[in-house]
Each structure stands twice: as structure tokens, then as C-alpha cells.
Amino acid sequence: MRIHIKSRKSKKSGITPFLSVIIPAYNEEERIAQTLIRIDQYLSFKKYAYEIIVVDDGSSDNTVALVSKLSRKVGHISILKNKKNRGKGFAVRTGMRKAQGRIRLFMDADNSVDISHLDEFIRHLESGFDIVIGSIKIGEQRATERNGIHRRILGSLANFLIRALATPKIKDTQRGFKLFSARAAKKIFSRQTINRFGFDIELLVIARKNGYRIKEIPVVWDNPAGSKVGLSSYVFTLVELLRIAANRAVGKYNF
């Protein structure tokens, strides 16, 4: 699907935004404000209207208060609140359903993939792709991992199993920086069933199953210390991977 950028007024004017940015957040009080300011500063120089939707996933810290305060100062920012923790996949789906943009990006609250990558992603949507995803498994290696070698080992093992069982043509399913056309997002997220870390895999399986064109491009990934992804997250993801394989086998992802 080809996307053409046109100059837009601000979201406050009631004009549908060109871009929606969805950010799932869980106990991100130390990082979320910096990330939102960075995104808004970058996008403020663009000629299109945009919205930034933070979906709080039942945080017990000051994430909601910080985002709410910032949203009163920056009109492009809004917040949705889940009463309890439902998982990153659930939070992203919530944001995508609320989004109004003609193109829709989800990215991580820690800004591990910087918003400056967006222009290249948009160019690929304009050229006819439906989905553009960030990858550290293609091109020159541009990844910084600050959470120990065990994370790299577990990540490599998980990636091998994901490619073997679900997405053989995609080298990296797990980067939290993915851009969708509105048409693709509406269809794909309507079939999403996985609520936690395996949701990225499921989205791409659904997209492939239904003929959407996916472009994987290299990104710079800087994973900050203190990541919330532990050993249990890898175990849950592998369990979800088996669910995805079963769902695909019985035709659950067909439109």
C-alpha cells in the first residue's frame, strides 16, 4: 500500500493525524518523560500531524502521573490506562485500536531504537510495503547490550526457535520498533491473541499468512541497563510460540 505524506494541521484542530506513535509502558517513571520529550522534539519539525499514545499497563510507580503532567503541556501526547498489568502485547493492541493515524508505529518506552529511524521506515511504506520492522540481525551489527552475556545467549536461542517454528524469512522479530499502514494494523491486530512478549511473532505470522508485504531494515539498538526482560520472559515467549504455531495450523489467523 503506497502512503503519501501531506502537510497536516495539529491534532488539536481535529484533523486526523498522519502518524500515530504507540508506546506501551510499565513502571517506566525513570525513562518515559525523556523518551516522550525526545519523540515530540523530533516530530515537531515534520510537516504532518501526529499523536503519541502512551498505554500504561497497570504501573505501580509514577508513570501515569508523569505522562499525564506532560500531556497537559504537550497536546500531541495522551495516555490510556489499564487497571492491571495485562502484558506488552495487550497494551500495544489497546493503543493501536485507539490510534487514528494513517500510519502507526509502536516503539519501546526506553527509546532503545531512536525515533530518528522513522524517516527511512516511512520511505519503505511509501514504496509499497505494508509493514516495516527494525532488525539487528541484518546489515552491520549495531547493537549495545548492557544486561549481561546471558541475555545474548538466551536471545540467540529464542531467535533460532522463532525462525524455525514461525517466521523463517524474518531474521529479527523482537525489536520494539514496527511501523504499519492503518489498513494493515486494523486487520492484523484484530486477529492478535498473544498478550505478552510473543505478540511480535504473532503479528508477523498473521501478516505473512494474509499476504502483507514486510520490510526488515537494520536499526541501531541500544538496550539500557535494568531491562525488565528476564529469564521468565524467554520461557513465556517460547510457550506463546507453541500457541502461535497451533493457531496457525488450525487457521485461526486467516481473514
TrEMBL record:
Localization annotation: Endoplasmic reticulum membrane
Glycosyltransferase 2-like domain location: 20-189
Keyword Transmembrane helix: yes
Enzyme class: transferase
Keywords: Endoplasmic reticulum, Glycosyltransferase, Membrane, Signal-anchor, Transferase, Transmembrane, Transmembrane helix
UniProt pathway: Protein modification; protein glycosylation
Protein name as annotated: dolichyl-phosphate beta-glucosyltransferase
Organism: Candidatus Giovannonibacteria bacterium RIFCSPLOWO2_12_43_8
